[in-house]
Write a structure and sequence with these properties.
mainly alpha, 138 residues
């Protein structure tokens, strides 16, 4: 696909080389010994340095322009802490914090792509960052 985008002059040679890194391969998984928790002997480490991370970073830079306009996105735990500090919770309410990585064990890919497509159609500010068409992104 990247070669097609280069051929259609939607991306430049430099970007093509960046997102199709010649040493690209699958992420490597290794284990490191853990000394702080006696019941867990190994900490799993995933090395993405030579994977398709560059392509993900590029697409993320395009999609971030859309994410900045969503009211309920929190960048990190520090931003969440600062936002929640100003919030008053009624005594009959209960606040819960959820790890979203464990909530989405099986994301429906086609539905996710359809939602992304509809959001990108409604707000075209992402077009200022790239020459790619909607079908190139989704």
């Amino acid at each position: 696909m990247a070669r097609k985008l280069l051929y259609e002059n939607k991306i430049c040679q430099k970007l093509f080389c960046y997102i199709t890194h010649s040493a690209s391969k699958f992420p490597r998984i290794c284990g490191k010994l853990k000394i702080d928790k006696p019941k867990v002997l190994l900490r799993t480490v995933v090395d993405f340095r030579f994977s398709q991370l560059q392509l993900a970073v590029y697409l993320n830079s395009i999609l971030q322009s859309k994410a900045k306009k969503i009211k309920y996105i929190v960048k990190n735990s520090e931003a969440f802490k600062n936002r929640i500090k100003k919030t008053t919770i009624n005594s009959d309410y209960c606040m819960a914090s959820l790890d979203v990585n464990t909530l989405f064990t099986k994301i429906p890919t086609q539905r996710t792509l359809a939602i992304m497509k509809s959001k990108l159609v409604k707000n075209t500010s992402w077009k200022e960052k790239t020459e790619l068409d909607l079908q190139d992104i989704v």
